[in-house]
Amino acid sequence: MTALTQLSQAIHDAPRWHQAEQFQDGNEIRIEAQHDQALGAVVYGLDARKAQSGETIYRLKQALAEHLILIFKHQSLDDLQYLAFASYFGSIFRPGADIPVLASQDDTGTPPDVVPVSNAVGKGDYTGHGELAAHADHQWTPLPSFGSLLYAIELPQDGGQTSWYNTIKAYEALDEATQKHLDQLQLITYNPFVRAKNNKGTTGYGATPLYRFKDQPIVGHAYPHPLVRTHPESGRKGLWLNERSEVELVHYDDQSGSELIASLREHLLKPEFRYEHQWEEGDIVFWDNQATLHSRRPFPSDQRRLLKRISLAGGRPY
Ligand code: OGA
Ligand code: MN
């Protein structure tokens, strides 16, 4: 027989339902909303290595749509078990080779299904140790991922916290006239990895212009998406704009567009919309890219940090 891909192997090897000790009892699972935070719920008592019931997955999907990030504690998984768990929630995000993203490989043009997000040399080394500005994964692609999971394996002593921002709360905090105006706008977010590819050595999240004026060159393809995005499950609207990519409002005056975007970015990053996660080894955070942004604090380069990321495919934003 031919060799299986990692993903097929993961499903092939996944626990069978008739093995009682490998089947998760849904009654053991507790989902606790973080009422004192802008978003998030913590999931206790779930072992992601086990087979999950339909009821459990449905509960988790509903909780994700409501709380936007789910924090699973005390996990211990290999890559195949991690893939098997993540794929309960959708297909793995696999962009075409014409769309460079984090960890796209030189030979295939595509990223691995499990991306090592790490400064640990020899273990992937994607994103380094610097600050990451607030972003939604793959926002610059035609079909951005609906969600991503990060699994913490090795953590630094200092720094490296990840924050998530509730873009629905940010939108709802705007006055009605502003909401009405924004509701009709389309935004292009230029792919930072196209620029990074042209200027080897940059990470893709860093130094690009914040707004493209019409006399400036276009770097890469443009995929306009609504500035105000409707969440597919809840119908709630969120402000879908990241902190630092080069963006452009479609059919909009350069100067007033760049000023509007700058003020919205400032608004989005307010502490009342944010939850900062203090990682513990074994945490998996599963977030909804459709209605959140995330950022990371820097950490010392001589301390190791290794997380593994899986992103799940999403539809065209609306
Ligand atoms: C990512 C990411 C944040 C972090 O992997 O998409 O943004 O805390 N990581 O490393
Ligand atoms: Mn990210």
Automatic annotation (TrEMBL):
<dbReference type="GO" id="GO:0046872">
    <property type="term" value="F:metal ion binding"/>
</dbReference>
<keyword id="KW-0223">Dioxygenase</keyword>
<comment type="similarity">
    <text>Belongs to the TfdA dioxygenase family.</text>
</comment>
<dbReference type="InterPro" id="IPR003819">
    <property type="entry name" value="TauD/TfdA-like"/>
</dbReference>
<keyword id="KW-0560">Oxidoreductase</keyword>
<dbReference type="GO" id="GO:0005737">
    <property type="term" value="C:cytoplasm"/>
</dbReference>
<feature type="domain" description="TauD/TfdA-like">
    <location>
        <begin position="40"/>
        <end position="310"/>
    </location>
</feature>
<dbReference type="InterPro" id="IPR042098">
    <property type="entry name" value="TauD-like_sf"/>
</dbReference>
<dbReference type="GO" id="GO:0000908">
    <property type="term" value="F:taurine dioxygenase activity"/>
</dbReference>
<keyword id="KW-0479">Metal-binding</keyword>
<dbReference type="InterPro" id="IPR051323">
    <property type="entry name" value="AtsK-like"/>
</dbReference>
<protein>
    <submittedName>
        <fullName>Taurine dioxygenase</fullName>
    </submittedName>
</protein>
<dbReference type="Pfam" id="PF02668">
    <property type="entry name" value="TauD"/>
</dbReference>
<dbReference type="GO" id="GO:0006790">
    <property type="term" value="P:sulfur compound metabolic process"/>
</dbReference>
<keyword id="KW-0408">Iron</keyword>
